[in-house]
Amino acid sequence: MQTILKGKTKEVIINTGGPVVIIGECINPTRRKKLVSTLQEGSFDYVLELAESQIKAGADVLDVNVGFPGVDDVMLLPETVKVLQSHFDVPLCLDSPNPEAIEAALKVAAGKCLINSVNGEEASMKSLLPVAREYGAAIIGLCMDEEGITHDPEKRLAVAEKIISRAGSEGIKPEDIIIDPLAMAVSADPKACMVTLETIRLVHNKLGHNITQGASNISFGLPDRESLNAAYMAMSIFNGLTCPIANPEKITAMVRAADLVLGRDDFAVRFVEYFQSRQ
Ligand code: THG
């Protein structure tokens, strides 16, 4: 299955058979005070810096989250999208819990965006699926609903199936739905990673959809997050993860290595190119 996203002109194809597509996570106020302060001053310079450095480091798509307390992201998200698209051609992943901000951003965005995210709750599906359909956007479907986040992979699969079926009846094609099995902190729950890895395997084998997840979620509260994230990411890719949301500075080398190991990089062309670009 292929999910196609577009910037102004550039197409990015996410294929369930790989290679892995990287969604850069860094335009996000979590732990980035400078992003909040510069945006509060009305400056997009730092957003543009984050975009450029992530693209250089291997990001194929950029996640854009500008939500923080006291901000009106119904105004700020579309403004940020316009500024980013006037400088860069990569497709954007619009990351906001506010459906109005998502819609306002889609109104001004060129190409084909990814909505981050829709979940299995009635209110979420009802407000966002018609918007996705109207603007021709793809969606990320989170494996959670009114019952919360289950620890049973089969139940997470069932939530994914519910979102896919409901989206289908709203006129959204299966290939435009990327499933997020929900990566959670392993410090808080020793089984957290295994539940998600099994969900990835089930979604990949039974539904055949593209799969994303926040790559650094699992390591919250632990030292040496990079090693932990890399181990988890490699196993996730083997099970069917195709488009992680991650810091490209920290993940691209490992992703190129995983694609090579999995026979998706003939003669190690991309692996070597990336290595050389970092010298
Ligand atoms: N699924 C979906 N969307 C998501 C997430 C998900 N969006 C948000 C989040 N999870 C993914 N994005 C981030 C962004 C920033 C950080 C973590 C996840 C973060 N970064 C630290 C920093 O910048 O200091 C450290 C991370 C690092 O650089 O290694 O806190 O799960 N659909």
Polypeptide structure, described:
With 279 residues, this protein is of the alpha/beta class. It has one domain (2-278): Alpha-Beta Barrel (TIM Barrel). It is 47% helix and 14% strand. The chain has ten helices and nine strands. The chain has helices at residues 33-40, 45-56, 73-87, 99-108, 122-135, 153-169, 192-207, 225-239, 248-261, 269-277, and strands at residues 2-6, 11-15, 23-27, 61-64, 92-95, 114-119, 138-142, 177-180, 245-246. Helix 7 packs parallel to helix 8. The model has no long low-confidence stretch (mean pLDDT 97). The site of (6S)-5,6,7,8-tetrahydrofolate has 20 residues, from strand 6.
Q: What is the secondary structure topology, with strand pairs?
A:
Layout: E1 2-6, E2 11-15, E3 23-27, H1 33-40, H2 45-56, E4 61-64, H3 73-87, E5 92-95, H4 99-108, E6 114-119, H5 122-135, E7 138-142, H6 153-169, E8 177-180, H7 192-207, H8 225-239, E9 245-246, H9 248-261, H10 269-277
Parallel strand pairs: 3-4, 3-9, 4-5, 5-6, 6-7, 7-8
Antiparallel strand pairs: 1-2
The chain binds (6S)-5,6,7,8-tetrahydrofolate.
Residues 25, 28, 30-32, 95, 116-117, 140, 180, 183, 212-214, 216-217, 225, 245, 247, 250 line the site of (6S)-5,6,7,8-tetrahydrofolate.
